[in-house]
Amino acid sequence: MPANLMNGSQLAREIVSRSAVRAAELEAATGVAPCLATVIAGDDPASVTYVRMKENRCRQAGIRSRHVGLPADTTTAALVNVITELSTDPGVHGILVQHPVPAQIDERAAFEAIAPHKDVDGVTMLSFAAMAFGYPAFAGCTPGAIMRLLDAYHVDTSGKHAAVLGRSPILGKPTGMLLLAGDATVTYCHSRTRDLAEIVRTADIVVAAVGKPEFVRGDWIKPGAVVVDAGYNPGDIGDVAYSEALDRASLLTPVPGGVGPMTIAVLLEQTIDAAFAQLGHVSGT
Ligand code: NAP
């Protein structure tokens, strides 16, 4: 039987509508609408498109956007200055620094300039540490999106073997931490992993976050496994060979329409959470 699809687009629409209700409640109660600042250095076309998509979704959810565009030759100091100002601006509740940043910039220094309570993309070391230790923190939006999808489709992670392919700080590593917090037994795979296909064949849950089109082949997938394809490659191609995986998995995320829209939805939700906390408003709904 072909896999059921985890419909990230549908779930994201539901989250955006709920977010719009919450944003309206906050504005009615405090006179202030939630505001997300997006900072982009350079003019990488993919980054510009992502940021535009995020701003459109913000509008739909009643979140104001403040866009800061900096030239491609921006220095680390200039970028850090801008982020520090946004961090202390009471009119801004969440800050997103679009990555990748230009090569001359120290990305870590830029991320660390984000005030933790405005780190709605979960990129600071403090957010990562809090998440890893099980304290309240904003998760990275894509790892958070993956967990929301699993939850929405009633995937019980407890006791399951989860193989996470990729260990980047923004995606693979935190996703493995969140699965571990959900009591999964997690195996991280990366470019030095030996017998990767064999490891995947034993996994009940596979998260592909490698950045290589159709990297995970159908015959690597244990029949009935849950497969989350976080990859996004040119031509709308994921990191999993989709048609092959359809015949093996029980649940599968499509690309596009799986993790991608959910990532933006989680960003909006976390921006609204941040605004509620900063304005000291407790939801009446
Ligand atoms: P990244 O920083 O380039 O990390 C890629 C990871 O894959 C690394 O850990 C790397 O291992 C591993 N890897 C590379 N080649 C491998 C191989 N042959 N075998 C096993 N592992 C290998 O990428 P990323 O930012 O995590 O993104 C990964 C994918 O997710 C990309 O397709 C990206 O577009 C997508 N993405 C999607 C969203 C979304 O919203 N849907 C958000 C972010 C990223 P090493 O650590 O050993 O180098």
Task: Describe the protein's topology.
Blueprint: E1 4-5, H1 8-30, E2 35-41, H2 45-60, E3 64-70, H3 76-88, E4 94-97, H4 107-112, H5 125-133, H6 141-152, E5 161-165, H7 172-181, E6 185-189, H8 196-201, E7 205-208, E8 226-229, H9 242-246, E9 251-252, H10 259-279
Parallel strand pairs: 1-9, 2-3, 2-4, 5-6, 5-7, 7-8, 8-9
Bound molecules: NADP nicotinamide-adenine-dinucleotide phosphate.
Can you characterise this structure?
The protein folds into two domains: 27-115, 3-Layer(aba) Sandwich (Rossmann fold); 141-259, NAD(P)-binding Rossmann-like Domain (Rossmann fold), CATH 3.40.50. It is built from ten helices and nine strands. The longest helix has 23 residues, at 8-30. Helix 7 (172-181) links the parallel strand 5 and strand 6. With 285 residues, it is an alpha/beta fold. 42% of the residues lie in helices and 14% in strands. Helix 6 (141-152) packs across helix 7. Bound molecules: NADP nicotinamide-adenine-dinucleotide phosphate (NAP).
